[in-house]
Design brief:
The structure is a homodimer of 226-residue chains. The radius of gyration of chain A is 20 Å and the shape is elongated. The first copy, chain A, has 2 domains: 60 residues, Arc Repressor Mutant, subunit A (Orthogonal Bundle), CATH 1.10.10.60; 162 residues, Tetracycline Repressor, domain 2. The longest helix of chain A has 27 residues. Chain A is an all-alpha fold. The first copy, chain A, is built from 10 helices and no strands. At the A-B interface, helix 6, helix 7, helix 8, helix 9 and helix 10 of A face helix 6, helix 7, helix 8, helix 9 and helix 10 of B.
């Protein structure tokens, strides 16, 4: 089953392990989100999964490991999106920033509950896990600053403190976990598009002003967030 | 002691009550921040204040009331800042937005721990308190949207979806509670200034580009946030 490439094809056994881990993480996240980390036991997770506790212990050493996995998801996903754009998307800094914006928003909204759990439970992370997650955040910021610096050097961006601008972009997108509703005024894709438009505006990239987006009528009534 | 004006001068008795309430809230916030709400008893709060529990009960009916008071602080302070600018600052929409930005950032950074506690503990609020706080957020957003609409109508702002822009502004400023450090690269005033510059940029207000701010040399070593 071993492969000579650097990205080996997963064997069925590995796939099953990955599936069981994913399912365990998803159920743990449901319960942490509903009841809080401290009020959720491994027994409760096993019960909701209809398995025994040893099933969970075969894949995770502790409840703390599950929490770390969940708390890392949002930033890991955002960082993966950023890295992929930097590695694969050619074009001007503005084009690359636009693609970063779009994928960053999608990463945040797809991990909304995981990010909420991180915000609530970061105190319950081990110092090592907290440090590891903070390092990912720092890496994200550093790479975003570098992209902004590149755009300033190229004369495309009009930003005077790129570190502050990177924190502002990180904030306006990350905060979407607070107000995003699945049945809100705009779809996930529209939100991603609009926030990216605002990010480019903040970077001082002149932009056209097409008509305001609107969601298909049947879902238009609900409001997005607070 | 009664006054005929609508804003009566506080009698000494009221001042003492206000002082005791404030001190109790501050100590409760310290403990909620350090240990979490569920792990903090009223006894522990009384102990740290060097008072008895009846002292606290004279001013608050329950631990839940203390939590509600703490969780409301950030948004109440931001809303008060917004209301004050709208009521007292004359000028163009851009000038008013700049003043809103500056005071909003200060409100958030001055309530950093209170906002962190809200993010962590919102699940522990009663539905009534949660609703009241959500209403304040909604009011804030609605008023900010109105100001942005005014600027668009006046041809000063270049924003295509003012509701999304209001959420983006709210997010980039609110998220500062995550990365702000008292001993960071920039002072609170500099951060307020820079974020406001970015908000105006996002609203499409053309801005000059003076030199980047820098903190007095002795405090320059530390970084702002993640």
């Amino acid at each position: 089953m071993a492969s000579a490439t650097t990205a080996p094809i997963m064997g069925i056994r590995d796939e099953v392990v990955a599936l069981k881990r994913e399912r365990t993480i998803a159920v743990a996240a449901e319960l942490f989100y509903e009841r809080g980390y401290e009020n959720t036991s491994l027994d409760a997770i096993a019960e909701r999964m209809n398995v025994t506790k040893p099933f969970i212990y075969a894949h995770f050493t502790s409840k703390a490991e599950l929490l770390a996995e969940i708390c890392a998801r949002g930033i890991a996903s955002a960082l993966a999106a950023l890295n992929e754009v930097l590695a694969t998307v050619k074009g001007t800094p503005a084009e690359r920033l636009a693609e970063v914006g779009r994928r960053f928003v999608v990463a945040v909204l797809n991990n909304q509950h995981y990010i909420a759990i991180f915000s609530r439970e970061e105190k319950n992370l081990t110092p090592e896990d907290f440090h590891r997650i903070s390092e990912m955040r720092r890496t994200f910021d550093t790479k975003l600053v570098a992209l902004l610096d590149e755009g300033v050097a190229a004369g495309e961006f009009h930003v005077r403190d790129t570190r502050m601008a990177a924190l502002a972009i990180g904030g306006m997108v990350s905060w979407a976990y607070v107000w995003y509703r699945l049945d809100g005024r705009l779809t996930l894709e529209q939100i991603s598009h609009e926030l990216t438009w605002l990010i480019l505006g903040m970077a001082g990239v002149p932009q056209p002003m097409p008509s305001k987006p609107s969601r298909p009528a049947r879902r238009r009534a609900a409001a997005n967030g607070p």
